[in-house]
């Protein structure tokens, strides 16, 4: 009867020792933990506090699991109150890690719940954390296939995230799993990969060194194994990591047991047992107690062997009790059943959708065939009418084109004839007068030479000849303008500095105005965009447009200057350029008399001009509009207000 309760009494004694060890561990808390606890005492948003409590649980996990559990539960409660799903998943994972040593079934439930939240919200980092945690449980249960499957899934996520520190942990865990199954080549390969990556990242290697020591010991490289174990012990002590200290102490104790050095084996096994008790690491207590039981059975005394054997049995009962194993198996079975049901439901849903799709496709094809038949019949009826009207349409189209050509030619001819009548009439008139003057001077010379009369006649003759020349030049200008309109072919475009082109033509127009009207002055303002890019244009054509617009602006301000007092009016012309999202804009504005609304609609028509007879052909703006719209694909528009001035706006498309 007493023997039945002896393991229970021993386990209760262990819990007392564990509490004492926990208080001792509290005195050895890391600076990082102290910093986190100070931060936790400050005001924090709920989401930040949840993650902070999880971080504190992580720190306590290497010191003592009861405190890690307490902080994980606080984090879980706060996350659920705040409806912080990511924080809830993190807290469930920490709580599972804290409970894993004494209740594998409950830990697995918590990890699976956390994994479900991570998958639902596509949280890859939390998925990897839970896959690793679930893999550890299956490794504990010696389920090689399941354990390694979860480990490798976690490793693939780490590679996908390029999280090399996470990859160090996954590689080392895979190595430890292969060591547990005595596949030493694979164990050594993954531990070496983990060690090389950790060295490059300057991260901790305490677990990796223990894994390398295990491989070396089992392969008979005992001196190398001893070196690895001692380095792991030193690094674990520096980190305050009780759990990895237990691993390294037990590994070294096992090495000394193999060598028959039982006193050293007992010494390090006891250190490993103490580290595990301080941490609450029941599996570590089990491993250390197993070594101590074997050593004391061999060396004595027997009571020490009985003491550790009792503790060993209590740990086995706690970790591997039949009820817990059965519950764990049931959870695993239920999880597989749910997965199978979900897969079956998904397959049925795919089949149903496939069936619906086929039926819908068939109905669609039937409807399509009906529509095609109907369309074919309608098209046959329409084709007959279309073929009959096509010939008539072509004939009518040809006639319309011919009529339009003749109408345009007639209009153009009438315009040219009308415009040429004026200068030719003047030429005819002045030629007749010149003939009369020549006859007169010849008659006067026959009678008597009169020097004064002769000079007057010669002056008149000279003036007539000048008038003939002027009106001849006007006729030439009309013909030149018409040739410009009729010009065919295209000049290649070149990248041009528009600001320079604007400056040059404004200067030429101003010089021409001053040469024609000495004493004329006007204020010229340039508002040119500094960073205007080069634009592909036909520079001579665009220069002609700019020169025409600047000349018109200067003419307009001079006309108003002649009509108003000098003190009340100052002539001004403004040219500007700017870059628009898909075009370049150029503006030429003046403060002249403006253009009446009735006239504005006609200014781009050939031969229309507001200048007096003899001062303009009426082709400048027409040609400018044609150069911008047809030659460059842009627009030329005008805005004007009577008494305030006129502004011409050029937009040139630019693919920038």
From TrEMBL:
Report the transmembrane regions from the record: 353-373
Q: Does the keyword Oxidoreductase apply?
A: no
Catalytic activities: ATP + protein L-histidine = ADP + protein N-phospho-L-histidine
* Molecular-function GO terms, alphabetical: phosphorelay sensor kinase activity
* CDD domains tied to this protein: HisKA
Q: Where is the signal peptide?
A: 1-25
What PROSITE patterns has UniProt attached to this entry? Answer: HIS_KIN
User: Which Pfam family would be a valid example here?
Assistant: HATPase_c
EC number(s) given by UniProt: 2.7.13.3
Keyword list, A-Z:
Membrane, Phosphoprotein, Signal, Transmembrane, Transmembrane helix
Q: What class of enzyme is it?
A: transferase
The residues covered by the Histidine kinase domain are: 415-656
Work out whether the entry's keyword set contains Membrane. yes
Q: What is this protein called?
A: histidine kinase
Species name for this entry? Hymenobacter chitinivorans DSM 11115
């Amino acid at each position: 009867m007493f023997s039945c309760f002896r393991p229970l009494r021993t386990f209760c004694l262990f819990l007392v020792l564990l509490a004492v060890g926990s208080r001792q561990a509290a005195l050895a808390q890391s600076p990082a933990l102290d910093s986190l606890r100070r931060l936790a005492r400050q005001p924090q948003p709920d989401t930040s506090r949840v993650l902070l409590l999880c971080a504190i649980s992580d720190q306590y996990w290497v010191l003592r699991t009861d405190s890690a559990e307490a902080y994980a539960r606080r984090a879980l409660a706060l996350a659920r109150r705040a409806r912080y799903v990511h924080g809830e998943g993190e807290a469930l994972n920490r709580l599972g890690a804290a409970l894993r040593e004494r209740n594998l079934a409950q830990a697995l439930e918590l990890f699976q719940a956390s994994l479900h939240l991570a998958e639902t919200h596509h949280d890859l980092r939390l998925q990897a954390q839970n896959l690793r945690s679930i893999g550890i449980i299956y490794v504990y249960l010696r389920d090689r296939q399941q354990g390694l499957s979860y480990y490798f899934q976690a490793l693939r996520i780490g590679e996908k995230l390029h999280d090399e520190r996470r990859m160090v942990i996954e590689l080392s865990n895979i190595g430890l799993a292969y060591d547990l199954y005595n596949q030493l080549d694979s164990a050594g390969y993954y531990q070496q990969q983990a060690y090389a990556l950790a060295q490059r990242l300057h991260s901790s290697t305490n677990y990796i060194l223990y894994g390398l020591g295990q491989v070396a010991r089992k392969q008979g490289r005992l001196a190398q194994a001893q070196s690895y174990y001692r380095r792991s012990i030193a690094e674990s002590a520096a980190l305050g990591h009780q759990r990895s200290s237990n691993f390294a102490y037990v590994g070294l104790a096992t090495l000394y047991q193999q060598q028959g050095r039982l006193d050293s084996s007992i010494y390090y096994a006891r250190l490993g047992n103490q580290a595990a008790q301080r941490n609450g690491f029941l599996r570590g207590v089990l491993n250390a107690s197993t070594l101590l039981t074997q050593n004391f059975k061999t060396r004595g005394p027997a009571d020490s062997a009985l003491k550790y054997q009792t503790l060993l049995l209590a740990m086995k009962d706690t970790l591997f009790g039949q009820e817990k194993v059965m519950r764990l198996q049931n959870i695993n079975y239920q999880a597989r059943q749910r997965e199978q049901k979900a897969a079956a439901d998904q397959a049925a849903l795919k089949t149903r959708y496939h069936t619906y799709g086929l039926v819908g496709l068939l109905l669609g094809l039937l409807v399509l065939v009906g529509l095609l038949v109907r369309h074919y019949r309608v098209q046959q009826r329409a084709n007959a009418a279309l073929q009959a009207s096509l010939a008539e349409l072509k004939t009518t189209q040809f006639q319309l084109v011919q009529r339009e050509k003749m109408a345009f030619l007639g209009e153009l001819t009438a315009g040219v004839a009308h415009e040429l009548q004026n200068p030719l009439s003047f030429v005819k008139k002045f030629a007749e007068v010149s003939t009369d003057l020549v006859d007169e001077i010849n008659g006067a010379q026959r009678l008597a030479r009169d020097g004064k009369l002769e000079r007057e006649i010669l002056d008149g003759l000279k003036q007539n000849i000048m008038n003939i020349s002027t009106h001849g030049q006007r006729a030439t200008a009309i013909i030149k303008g018409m040739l410009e309109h009729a010009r065919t072919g295209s000049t290649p475009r070149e990248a041009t500095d528009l600001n320079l082109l604007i400056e040059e033509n404004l200067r030429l127009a101003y010089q021409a105005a001053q040469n024609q009207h000495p004493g004329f002055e006007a204020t010229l303002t340039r508002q040119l965009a500094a960073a205007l890019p080069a634009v592909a244009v036909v520079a001579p054509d665009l220069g002609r447009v700019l020169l025409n617009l600047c000349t018109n602006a200067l003419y307009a301000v001079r006309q108003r200057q002649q009509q108003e007092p000098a003190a009340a009016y100052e002539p001004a012309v403004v040219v500007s350029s700017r870059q628009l999202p898909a075009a370049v804009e150029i503006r030429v504005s003046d403060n002249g008399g403006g253009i009446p609304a009735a006239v504005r609609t006609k200014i781009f028509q050939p031969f229309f001009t507001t200048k007096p007879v003899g001062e303009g052909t009426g082709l400048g703006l027409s040609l400018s509009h044609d150069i911008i719209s047809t030659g460059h694909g842009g627009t030329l528009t005008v805005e004007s207000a009577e008494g305030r001035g006129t502004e011409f706006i050029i937009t040139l498309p630019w693919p920038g």
